[in-house]
Amino acid sequence: MKRSTLIGLSGSVSIAALAAGVAISAQDKYTVQVPNGLAFSEFRGYEDWPVIALSENEGLIAVIVGNAAMIDAYKEGVPANGKPFPDGARMAKIHWSPKKQETYPGQPTVPGVQHDVDFMVKDSKRFADSGGWGWAAFAYDAASDTFRPFTTADNPPQENDAKCGFACHTVVQNRDYVFTEYGKR
Q1: Is residue 157 assigned to a domain?
Q2: Where is the secretion signal located (predicted)?
């Protein structure tokens, strides 16, 4: 092989290796999992789910979204009708730090930097010992554009297994462990 061909091939291989290294180092959020619990991948596509409700708590604003099974159950009157959500119902709560929208008169509060995302899934067999629900909370780091499971060192402190929400949600056991109400449309 000619020397110029070898140099060109070597340069191409180096660029390809560098590009692959960059691609490998960027986190795919769908690979993150709570120890002994839910994986981000179980909620693939949550970004496009219909809105259940909005909330504001502890200085954060949030949108709560649900998959088709969750939305259909709400439309049928669950949990107010005393029936439980069906297995497969999923919801996500996406939190942001609030910011003022400077370009609109009155400067309304809008989502700023993402803070975290929380997930719930109804699976009465898999999570029989936690009301039939599994939970996960993932903190977001804007600087690295990555997620990681919450820990007890976070604010608010959060256990990081699939039962992390059970203790808090027992106060709404009569609502099938779900706080969020579906707003009239």
Answers
A1: yes
A2: 1-19
47 and 117 in a common domain: yes
Cβ contacts of 96 within 8 Å, gap of 6 or more: 60, 61, 62, 111, 112, 113, 114, 115
Residue 21 and residue 95 in one domain = no
Give, for all 185 residues of the chain, the pLDDT tens digit.
Answer: 554 444 443 444 444 443 444 444 557 898 998 887 899 999 999 999 999 999 999 899 999 999 999 999 999 999 999 999 999 999 999 999 999 998 888 889 999 999 999 999 999 999 999 999 999 999 999 999 999 998 878 776 666 677 878 888 999 999 999 999 998 88
Q: Do 44 and 73 reside in the same domain of the chain? A: yes
Residues 117 and 95 sit within 8 Å (Cβ to Cβ): yes
**87 and 61 assigned to the same domain:** yes
Does the predicted model carry a pTM greater than 0.90? no
